[in-house]
User: Which sequence fits this backbone?
């Protein structure tokens, strides 16, 4: 059995017995031997049976034990600007918490047959509601198309409905090219 949990803005695929480094956990859990429970479980997989949360699996949790605290890898921040002799080198190591996954606690959420049964129970209720309100079950009539031209909107009885006409040719240019100046005859 495996699970995908979310902690510190990252997602981790875990199984029972795995150790992982997480972003530092708030509060007391930084002490070695403390028990931690993760409740933001995004997915639980058990062989062929996979439960996907929307966005989390309701009631699922993963229990873990804190092993200790550690520092993450060194991150170097280097700022540089060309041609002005500007260079700044800084860096840091992120505080991390090491945990060991003890157990994955799935829920009763993975019962698709129960959902189908609930839908079947609702079907007679929907039919009874439609019988009580017959106008709701009938489809609505479509509205007539509004006249497209201004004249048709002013007097809809006299205006003819606009039909799709084939596209006219592209209008010719309004400006006429000026004649080129000719060189004057030499005197």
Assistant:
């Amino acid at each position: 059995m495996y699970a995908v949990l979310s902690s510190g803005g990252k997602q981790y695929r875990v199984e029972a017995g795995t150790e992982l480094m997480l972003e530092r956990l708030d509060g007391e859990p930084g002490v070695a031997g403390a028990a931690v429970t993760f409740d933001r479980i995004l997915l639980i997989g058990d062989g062929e049976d996979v439960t996907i949360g929307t966005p989390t699996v309701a009631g699922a949790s993963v229990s873990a034990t804190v092993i200790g605290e550690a520092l993450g890898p060194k991150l170097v921040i280097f700022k540089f600007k060309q041609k002005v002799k500007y260079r700044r080198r800084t860096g840091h190591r992120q505080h991390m918490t090491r945990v060991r996954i003890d157990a994955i606690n799935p829920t009763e959420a993975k019962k698709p047959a129960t959902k189908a049964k609930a839908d079947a129970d609702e079907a007679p209720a929907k039919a009874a509601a439609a019988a009580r309100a017959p106008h709701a079950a009938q489809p609505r009539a479509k509205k007539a198309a509004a006249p497209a031209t201004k004249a048709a909107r002013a007097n809809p009885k006299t205006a003819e409905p606009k039909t799709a006409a084939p596209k006219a040719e592209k209008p010719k240019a309004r400006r006429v090219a000026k004649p080129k100046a000719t060189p004057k005859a030499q005197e």
In short: The radius of gyration is 36 Å.
